[in-house]
Every structure is written in structure tokens, then in C-alpha cells.
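Fold this complex.
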Amino acid sequence: MILWRAIAAAILFAGIPALLAGEIPPDARRSGYSFMGPDTRAMQDDDTSNPGMLFVLDGETLWRKKTGSADKSCADCHGDARSSMKGVAARYPAFDKALARPVTLDQRINLCRTNHQQATPLPYESRDILTLSAFVAHQSRGIAITAGEDPRLAPFVEQGRKLYLQREGQLNLACTNCHDDNFDKRLAGSPITQAQPTGYPLYRLEWQTLGSLERRLRSCMTGVRAQAYEYGAPELVALELYLMSRARGMPMETPAIRP
Amino acid sequence: MARSTVCIVATLASLALASHTRADGLVPYTIVGDGIADSLTGMPGDAARGRALVLARTTTCILCHSGPFPETRFQGDLAPDLSGAGTRWSTSQLRLRLVDASHFNPDTIMPSYYRTDGLVRVGRNFTGKPILSATEIEDIVAFLATLRD
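Structure:
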């Protein structure tokens, strides 16, 4: 009798995708939005008060602007972003066949600039790359994240997961120590979130500007007194990919507001 | 009994001797039981300086801990309240907890404040340095010992 029960239980559990130790079950995942106070939420909810929308509008202007020696705008190839870019940011970082590795949305925009517009790449975290990225990602607002589904990405997702679990820096802390094991507690008075990257690029009140997920990751690394990876480093891309795949199914919020 | 005492003394002496060969520039210390009995500096710490250190964000204590510090906003709640720490622990136990909390629990999120080995990708400005100096450890230990229920 006990044996049969054990077998039945084993069969039951085998059907459920195994959660790794410390991982947050899908139905317990929460956007950083849910950790914010009512004022900050209201600021994000109303497009006329959300400062991120100013960047989105600037991005729309850049989208239509001809640039580079090819004298082409994004719109000349991609047309109306409202339809052509819908859902695109939700699947980034995506696998690039030519490079045989994942690229972030910012890197994709710069590949387009170099290859098709014959323009110089925009520096990481510059206003132009952030506005274009925000405009493109905004077309996915409300759409479920699908990043990491491409089987060619599997080894890179795994690399990102390992980095997420790796303790580092003088304070010897891994992402998981705070964002899986201690979310909702307070670090120096501020709530620790689950690190679900649903709203990037986003407007951080602390920064007083829009910033990328890479900027956020680098500031966490600096916080634990680790040597932050350079912008665009394969490790940062892998970490970004893992975080996006970890948030798969959650809706995009770009441009989000965070404290 | 006499023989085992001699044996412990001999072990301690050899530990102390071994730790003198450390190349990391840290003051050698000896773990006895669940603590470090001797001051890292050979002198008692200054509790008033220790209180200021606990409240300074750069030492990181207050980011995770809270305590009887009414003037300080934004304390953390990731780790136990420091109230009564001096009742719960002896100075010897407090010292080892600060120096290397992972000695008790390898999975703890509390950093080892007096350790430079076994760390990954330490930032350029922090390479080879412990989070706290021996003097800072002693000051904080002296202060925590005054927090009695």
C-alpha cells in the first residue's frame, strides 16, 4: 500500500518540471512593480506622468530619422514599429546566427546600424541607444516574455544561471542569495525584489534617467564589491538572458519606473 | 588530564606558528572552540567607535541588521536584530562571527569580515583587503558586547 502510494507520488512529481533549489515557483513570481509604493506605481501607470515615455517619444523620432552612409531609417526597412516590433523585445536576448551567440536588443540595434545603415554603433548607455531601445521595447508592453525558448540558447541560459548562483566580490554574495532567498525583506530599508527584468530599459528615480538592465546588473556587482563585467560582455548577456528566461510568461512593462 | 592540557597547548602553539606564515597580511588568530578568545590587536576595542562603525553604511552591518539605534532610519531586516547580542554571545563568539561567519554555516549570507581568500572577482579597489581591519573588528566587538537585554 505504502509502496503504491510512493510510486503514485513519484509519477505525479515526475510530471511537474523540477524546480531547482532556491528557485521561485512560476505562480509566485512578482514584478518589481509589486514591491513599489502607490506613488511610484501611479507614476508608471500614467503615461503622462511616466518620465520613461519621454524617452520612448524621442526613440520614435530616431526610428524615423535617416542615418549612416546608407541614408536609411529604421522605418525604411521595418515600417510601422507598432506592428513590426510587437513582441520583439520580449524574446531578447536572441540568438544571432552569424555571431553564433545571443545578442541583446541594444546589440541588435547596433548590428542593424553597422550592417544596414552603415552608421557607427551607438555607445552603450548613451541617450540614443536607450531611446531607440525603449521605443522598440515599448511595442511589447503587456506582451508575455518569451526569451530563451530557442534551443540554441540553452548553453547560454545555463551559463547565465551559473553566474546568477556564483558568489562574488568582497562581500561574497550571489544574485540568488538576495533575489531568490530574501526577496520582500529590506536591505537598508528598501525592499529586495525578485530581479524579474520586465520593464527595461526603465526609468530609475535613483538614476534620474533611463537605464539598461546591464547598468542595473553592474551596479549590483559593484554593490557586492565585485569587478563588474564591461557593457556587452558575454557574461552580462548570459546573465540578462537567464533573467529574461526566468521571467518567461510575465508581461513586459517598458518603460517601467523603479525607485 | 594534565596530558590533554599539554596536548591542547601544543596544538594551539602549532596553529599559532602555522598562521604566522600567512601571506595575506592579516593578523593571525586562533579559533578555540566556537570563538576567537584573543583580541586581534592585543588590545580591547573602543565601544563608542564601534557603535559609529556599526551605523556607518560602508561597514555594511546596518544594511542587513537592525538594532537599538532610534536615530537611524533605513535599517535592514535580512539578519537578526542586534539588540541583546552581548547577552547571546561572548566576546570570543562575537569576534569569530565577525571574522568568519561561514565557519558556523557555509551557506550564510553574512560576509566574512576578516578574510581575503576564497573570493571570486573581487573589485579592483578591494583586492587583498578584508572588509574590516583588525582594529575595526575589535571596536565593533566591544560595542556589540555592550548590547545587553
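The mean pLDDT of chain A is 94.
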